[in-house]
């Protein structure tokens, strides 16, 4: 009853306004749900920046807020990549930091001095609310059904595929980039539909913003030309397309070139050439269209053929020549790895070593998208049915994004919006069909029958006479309606359950802090990372250089506030390989490397005591591989495997392994925790050698409570000019002559 | 407030709130600079003087009980106590009371100084009633000296004992002739491996000097020591406890009438001045010994007793929440046990912030005379440890509601600088009235001292915020409405 009253209310004169109001309220609720479902980690832990990259973004934002925009733009950071430094202002995408800075100053202006950390932590959830709104707008442009937009917004708000990169604290470029991506696509569709310069210029504006925010802007740069190209190929060239594309390309390219990191790439790199090509093609097509109106068709045919041939040859030849001569940069490695998933592992181990660059496993699709993964093709199919200009866009987008999402885990993120849109279209189609209760009810009353199912059944019987009399087509059986609608509702609820479960369990851990449960059920927090970082921050000189594997570079920069040798901005492979070599070589080789790089402290992550599997010994092979890429003669991956090809840390580990600095630092003094000969590595399930490794050139400076972080101090040169081995032997009381002899023998025997 | 007017200009050195280190060599500036030739008029003599040096805590506490006698012909009220200029900037909590009638309150004292070349400076004690000629009075002077203990040896093993050395003059510094005096030193235990022995003939009783009684040593008695006499002695004793020192403590107390809340936040810059580690920190050794819980020179925990009714405590540092804290609310006192992220060994530092809320009604009272309020809060809270903690600088800020006027305060803590400023924060238009007080060289003995603030807060001021916000919202709506109703389209109108 309430429903019919509501329906009547909606049908009244104020219906339009009421529905608009209702829609706004629903959208606000969706945005609220989107924001609040991302707050698990803040509630469970604290308002903290997660993972690795966000720590750099946070540090850069703090720099921006403290020093102003211009010094941020010109920022040369001498506290990373020691001794090289990094031109940070010119090698980052500033959109994220500037956005936070603007919000920070805006709130200050409104007398709300919110801490910059809280702004950074909550930026991603806030923008996810906006993304839901943008998805609503995009979907509403695609189909007439108003429910599709709302469904798409709701899907977008809670789908784990997007939450994975936008929980509170995940302060990464993607936090704002996905909103910009969806919104730019919305503006583009709007521009194509209206053929207006205004919408084209807005597209360019948001495209420029997107370029400033995320390297994934290349996806837009290639998707929009592809859309335009497909439309032309379908014979759908129109002045609307011409106006919208040219205004977007001209303004958008100019806008993108304002970002120092992008600079002249839009006219020089291969990734951007398709946009330029389609721009040229559009001019040609536009010109041809113009000529067509002026010339008789016979002459026009000849002219067209010649023209097409010449232009194709000239432009393709030009492209090849420019690429060969180096004016246009060739494809980058990250790009090749999009086409050949094995490429990176062979040629650029550093890209392959990042877990998010791995090909996606099949379950990940179900995990991240749940029921949408099977609604998605249905939605795409529905687009094929009418295939308007904007629905062509959906088709192209889904095909491309599906491929990329299969190649690289992190590109699941670009697939998610279109999956939401397409499945919302499919789902709203189902609901619109099965929830439409009004029409048949009236018919039934006219028929005056008490059995609606029967009437509905008879109404749709393929009886020619009847169907001509009452041309009602559709599903009118309450039973089938209830079944389908009920099933849909169950699916929706399962979807919400799944999303919440995944968010809560998989994507809400800060990874800086590990949580465990005590026997009494209370939460116990393992906070070793911050313990060690804070120790570094408080008790080492301000410019003490820390050497660690690059994974921890950003965190050391952000939390410990100390200069690092390498960090997650992996721009210099050789430098990373140097660190890899120092870690994987013998002490005698590593010590000069560390001295040359003025290393004061070495930080390693060791999970053996706690069973923490993300530690450096497990990442060690990547260090070896990357070092081997530069010094194939000095570091060999094969030497770290036993004769039977096993990677072991126990008694049977190879000599190279046991002598490597990383191995020694991980297990130094670890034996002392256990009864003699009982030392156990809980990650690799190995019993360690009875005698632990000896260190001579570095000394243990700090070990965190659960041994996850171990910090070593690099010893200064010996006062008497001896090498550290003989100095150590002397301190132990060995005679000098015998010591050198015995030392060699002992190293061979024991280690 | 009236008690310490001359301190008010003492703090040019302390105006830099951000720098964490106190420049100890910088002398305190004073209003009264005396010429270098100044010698306190010899109008008093110390008939009998007993000094007690208490080394229980991580800073020496000196108590001088002295019978002073006016030897002049006129009534006198100005008694001088000399300090070396390097020492006086580390003397804290200088208080003088009448020994016989301590309820009379604390005497007025001030720092006076010769010109900067002079090595000696004075505390000038104003007796509340001038002492008549030939009359005697017993006064009790107490103070503590910060950063006076040095670890010897300066580097120790991680689990070995720590020894501190204290150097002082066996003759109590005085500007007057002292007829009879002795110095008692109370050690935390009887492990005193080194101490200076003075020749027995200096001693009035001709006994070996010092006299030992368990953990108490006595230097003296000495007879007829002239003014300014000095005899340096040092003692070295075991103190295997952290020497906790806060180079800076910032304490904010924020009053919210609307929320009925008193929010306190304290920011500490702690360091351990004890002996540093000879080798580096060894986690194995630490874990092995921590089962036995032996005495250690590392700072493991900071127990912070709060007033009952404290709520929502937090303990964070520069990189976020420190998860190793426990909070036990209780009827008598709420106990907040803070554990630093790592044990703070000698030479290590640890800075953090801690804060909590409390119900305002137990701290604030409205006066019957209308719109005046009285706020009574502790001047200093902070950790309560048996070994004590010293603060080189303490900045207390009382943030009153926006629109509070006529701010007055009183406290028995010697304050060196005061200011009343505006602090602009959440949704403020003018800024909140803020009373800033600075004190130097405090120790944890002061943690129960109170700060009483009175201020006027008209009820209209309380409505400033809602009115401003409402007006702001209306302004935004109006602007949106005006902008929305403007027609800025180019070309002909659709409806026309």
From TrEMBL, chain A:
Q: Which organism is it from?
A: Lindgomyces ingoldianus
Name the UniProt key words of this record, in alphabetical order. Answer: Transferase
Q: Superkingdom of the source?
A: Eukaryota
Q: What is the protein name stated in its UniProt record?
A: Oligosaccharyl transferase stt3 subunit
From TrEMBL, chain B:
Question: Domain of life here?
Answer: Eukaryota
Name the record gives this protein: Oligosaccharyltransferase alpha subunit
